[in-house]
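Homework-ish question, so no full write-ups if that breaks the rules, but can someone show me the predicted structure for this set?
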Amino acid sequence: AQTVTQSQPEMSVQEAETVTLSCTYDTSESDYYLFWYKQPPSRQMILVIRQEAYKQQNATENRFSVNFQKAAKSFSLKISDSQLGDAAMYFCAYSGTASKLTFGTGTRLQVTL
Amino acid sequence: DTEVTQTPKHLVMGMTNKKSLKCEQHMGHRAMYWYKQKAKKPPELMFVYSYEKLSINESVPSRFSPECPNSSLLNLHLHALQPEDSALYLCASSPHEGIANEKLFFGSGTQLSVL
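A: Not a homework solution, just the prediction itself:
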């Protein structure tokens, strides 16, 4: 079975600074996708960024980028120029051959002035 | 319209009650999902519907009964729930059921309390 581990329950960053959230996963599949979802107090899960395992190039979406290390099974999220609106719970997630997302336990990000 | 709409937003019910949660999308998506999220935990998949047919049931107790009357609507019927079923119930949809869940759209959930 696939597992997703987020070892940082909470992180804090100052506005305009950069923060990196860690995620590791375990799988025996060769074809899979990795995601970062954001869950603000509104409770809606919002897709932040997505990475296909077969792509060597790291995905980027504006201020959000990932560092995907396939051999190490590591998938970290970097948020640049942090904004107050980035404060939320961030979940790393895995999707393989089954039609389901397996989520990590989440990292709560605080953004301070 | 890129929204998944869930109603009600909050629900309090007794253990003998019967209630239903509703989820609606008008994006033409053919796959719809129910997730359960306990406080301070990640979401866990309950059911997947693909083209209005139940595709995945993650061994959910029968007191939860899903229904997909048409491609835009997904219901979750609740009966004889237990207090431990109190949670946030999230609905999601995607264009198709597939390996990537490539663009999963979530609703804002129904916060359920069972007394």
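Now go work out the reasoning yourself. Hint: The interface with chain B takes residues 31-33, 35, 42-47, 50, 52, 91, 95-101, 103-106 of chain A (CB under 8 Å).
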